[in-house]
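Progress narrative, work stream C.
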Amino acid sequence: MTAMDMVKITVNLIIIYVIGGLIMAFVYAKTSPIMFIKAKEEKEAALKLMMPEANKIAPLGEWEPHEKHAEYYAAQKCGEVKVISVKDEKTGKTKEEKECLHPEDIGYIAESYGKGYSSYINMLVSVNRNFVVQKVSILHHGETPGLGDEIEKDYFLKQFKGKSLDDLVVIKGETPDKIQAITGATISSRAVTEDGVRNAVKVLKEKLSGEGQG
């Protein structure tokens, strides 16, 4: 193989890599907004399920559990829901939107993270105005199949309803007022309970105690 052949091969490889990179960039540019919108819609739906009786979920602030971006919200009940007509600037069509008048906080929701056995566990936690847990929902995790992934099951998550900050402690074995650990997955159980949920409730209580309590 001559030096000229080597140059040709190198140039061809560079061209292939450049073209491949441009194609990947084009595909990402096209799909990224769609993925962002889809993720946003999924999160909004998940938030609504945390407190279905609320008419509106209003962003309140941000915090960083385990240096990860997370938000917390007020779940609000509208004193009155007004239907208004809004013109879409892009299409020119008129559509109806609901306006929440005189909203009152009926609870709060926080996104949180707990450091599990093999992943950071992403979750949502809802509380009432007295900061008593109403629901816990697992959004994403990478815990061990057949063990740690039991954190998603109802029998584990249902234990959280009605728990206050002091009750968010994991116990191995049966417990009447704390959180019973998943057999063989104590680390994952504690990651959800004592890390993710407890810290979420603590943050909500510290930041919002006294607000909307009238």
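Work stream C, second folded protein:
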Amino acid sequence: MEGRNGTRSMQEQAAAVVREILGDYGKRRAIDRIENATEPSRDVIVHILHELFQIVYPGYYRDPDSSRRVYNVNASISTIVDDIIINLQEQIEQALFYTDEFHAKSGEEIRKESERIVIEFMRRIPRVREYLDTDLQATLDGDPAAYSKSEIILCYPGFYAITVFRLAHELYLLRVPMIPRIMTEHAHSKTGVDLHPGATVGKYFMIDHATGIVVGETTVIGEHVKVYQGVTIGALSTRGGQKLQGKKRHPTIEDNVTIYSGASILGGETVIGHDVVIGGNCFITSSVAPNTRVNVKNQEMVLGGGGKA
């Protein structure tokens, strides 16, 4: 059907667009799959994270309805744990199916492995909380603007990102694919902190101000390390692409190191020794000896004057 001026109607043009898009789906690329996705669900995993926060910080993160009734911690935690186990087991099962190790195995074998992993993960939560308690103390000790631990738990994006990382890291160690990255990328989107779940981070870790921080997969960070906004702990080069997978690409940061805003520390062979202070905007691609202060030489600031406005 043509319009008054002889052109095709909007309905016909829309139908043509649909045909073009459907035709594009036939190119058999990864983006062209049209069957229902069976990978882990980002929405479900974000919901699981919210429930994990209720376990990790029971007095701070609760179901809003719990404030309307007498709070029974035993009943509440039991219910939440059951829900996490059911949902996370299902998500892990879906993730394992796409790995080379489990793709050829039976559904029953994958189910049993996902059940084993989720129970082991839940058993590690007390240890995760032990580390988070030290991170909380480090943040309080290191930030004079923090007036209480409650303020840090409820308000600080850096501490939120660390909490998600600590949880995701345990799943990473249990060789769960995809789900740990979904967790940390959710935190990345909320806080600006790109903290890879594969990184190894010791106790008393503090991220001040958050935003723009990058910590790569093979980074190793010791204890009592403080990182400010805009810091990159990254790879020196990624031109090797997938050939670099599994290799040490990111720096090692030893104990009692402070890294100020805008600093970049790059390379798998780079070691920042203990008790080092890295000044703002430093660009480092080689190791730094312990007990060293690294600064960018001050640039001369010239102020003009004497002219009329």
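Residues 97 and 105 are 8 Å apart (CA to CA). No further action is required on this item.
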